Every structure is written in C-alpha cells, then in structure tokens.
Amino acid sequence: MDRTILKNQLETYRTPYEEEAAFVKDFAELTLDPLAYKRERLAGHFTASSWIVNKNRTHTLLTLHRKLGRWLQLGGHADGNENLIEVALKEAGEESGLKNLMLVEERIFDLDKHIIPERPHVPEHFHYDVRFLIEADIDEPLQMSDESISLAWFSFDAVADMIGYNPSILRMLEKTSKSEILL
C-alpha cells in the first residue's frame, strides 16, 4: 500500500461511526503532504497500527504503553515508509515478538486521529493512525519491547474493563464483533 493506494482507499472509505467519519477527509488531504510519513511534520503525521486478534476472534493483544500509560493496540511511526501495512506489521512484530502475524485484508480496518502530548523536544501533535486487522496465534510466545510496561491477550469481554473509556479501542472491538458475522 503506497501513498496513491492509501489516498484512493481513503477517498472511498465509509464508516457508520460519526467520530471516525469526522476526520477521514483530513487523512486524505494529508496524503498530499510530502512529509506526511515523517515525524518531522510537527503538526502531525501518519502512524500505523495492528488490531491483533486470535483466529477465533475472542481475544485481542494489547500493550500497556510506556510513555502514555494506557492499554493500546500495537503500532508506531511510519518513519518515511509509505507502505502502512508494512509499518503496522513491523511494529506489531517488534512490540510483541510474534513471528506469525497474518494480515486479514489489505484494506483499512479503522482510522483514528488523536493528539499526542508535548514532550521534551517534541511539540504536541496529531497522529493520523491507519489501522489494519491482523490475526495471530494466541499460543505463540510473547516478547515485550522496551516501549511497553506490559503486554497481554484480553478476552473481548474484558477489554472495556481494562482500557477504561477509549472510544477508538471500543470501536475496533465492535467492528471485530461485526466482522465475525461476515466470516
């Protein structure tokens, strides 16, 4: 998936979730910026994430993010790579130690535009997070990276209790439950 494919997918992306629909146009416009895939774009830049589920679609893998102190899906910065599927898979592998990650489909699973707080030498900015649905074997050993405080599989029933209120995680959870019907 390169910049042109992403732009085309974004132009046709439809979602019934109002909060997600509100920023789809922002993502499409960002694809036109030559710095969109680099951290140097201080107003905001693309990131890619993996919503990792087991094959039976009963659990999801989340990380307790070291810098943000919240349970989140695995992902990270594009760092110049315009193939966000590659970025999502690379970050998921690095952050979990999983070797057998399987992309469910090459289309966007979810989008989220969220603010990242200011840190030393980095101003407050937006992450334009493009998310993909990934399957993994729940029995494959995990290896936590330095970016995490913890890493664990959670049953879908336990996710809301673990994460507190995070509308984008709850949205992906709901999308996963709806996608079960289509399988």
From TrEMBL:
InterPro entries: NUDIX_hydrolase-like_dom_sf, NUDIX_hydrolase_dom. SUPFAM superfamilies: Nudix. Pfam families: NUDIX. Residues 43-176 form the Nudix hydrolase domain. This is NUDIX domain-containing protein. It comes from Algoriphagus formosus.
